[in-house]
Write a structure and sequence with these properties.
This protein is α/β, with parallel strands linked by helices and 237 residues long. The chain has a single domain, classed as Rossmann fold. It is built from 6 helices and 11 strands. It has a 9-stranded mixed sheet with strand order 3-4-2-1-5-6-7-11-10, with helices on both faces. It has a two-stranded antiparallel sheet with strand order 8-9. Strand 10 and strand 11 form a beta hairpin. 37% of the residues are buried.
Length: 237
């Protein structure tokens, strides 16, 4: 059994070793705290446009973390939501196999589109909690495409926990939720506290807290204590 399956196209691979280093470093830091992950990294692919790189293995281990690469069918030039659903279809076989083998507690996507949308579809199919990370351009650029943005916000409303890389990202996403869907936040931790713990089912994710309090708002329509965090000044311990 593992704690989570982390899914993102932004992750290093032999052909692009500098791709998504932020995500790799985050997984390594959490693994050092004892959490167990398996990474799925779908690589955008469309026939005759960006052929599958033969140098990329299907399976590898990176810093002790198992990584599986798969093709992600991607329509070049599309500004709608199609690529989010194609992402779900592209990872379905690999993800279903890993879920059967490892029984993860939750699925974690990084990047709202197409990753977050595709993983949200599969999380619903399997009845597994979905956590997602917002990094910047996934929100700031896609915000200008109405049909895509509608699909993104729908998937975010279904997430158990949203990590926003900045306060501005958090506010932009919250603006897309109707006021009635946002319950009042619980009191923040004491400013004298230096470490907090976020609990996803039975899995604690420890984070280092800045001198001031957290930005924490519970997600709508969830009975758990998961919420939206602004991580602009937080770092993994």
């Amino acid at each position: 059994m593992i704690d989570a399956i982390f899914i993102s196209n932004l992750f290093p691979n032999p052909a692009e070793p500098g791709r998504g280093l932020y995500n790799r470093d985050q997984m390594v830091a959490l693994a050092h705290q004892g959490l167990k992950f398996h990474v799925i990294s779908p690589l955008p692919w469309f026939p005759f446009v960006n052929p599958w790189k033969q140098a990329i293995p299907r399976h590898t281990t990176m810093d002790g973390i198992p990584v599986t690469y798969c093709r992600q069918l991607y329509l070049p030039g599309s500004r709608g939501a199609q690529n989010g659903y194609l992402y779900a279809l592209s990872i379905r076989r690999t993800l279903s196999r890993l879920i059967r083998q490892h029984h993860p507690t939750f699925l974690w996507s990084s990047f709202a589109f197409p990753d977050g949308v595709g993983v949200a579809v599969e999380a619903r199919r399997h009845g597994i909690p979905h956590v997602t990370s917002l990094l910047g351009s996934d929100i700031n650029l896609n915000h200008h495409y109405p049909s895509r943005w509608k699909t993104i916000t729908k998937s975010l409303r279904q997430a158990c926990l949203i990590f926003a890389k900045s306060k501005a990202l958090r506010e932009r996403v919250e603006d897309s939720f109707p006021p009635s869907a946002l319950p009042l936040p619980p009191p923040p931790p004491s400013t004298s506290t230096t470490t907090g713990s976020i609990r996803i089912s039975s899995v604690p994710l420890a984070v280092r807290e800045p001198a001031d309090s957290w930005d924490w708002i519970p997600r709508p329509n969830t009975s758990s204590s998961l919420g939206t965090l602004s991580l602009s000044r937080m770092s993994l311990r």
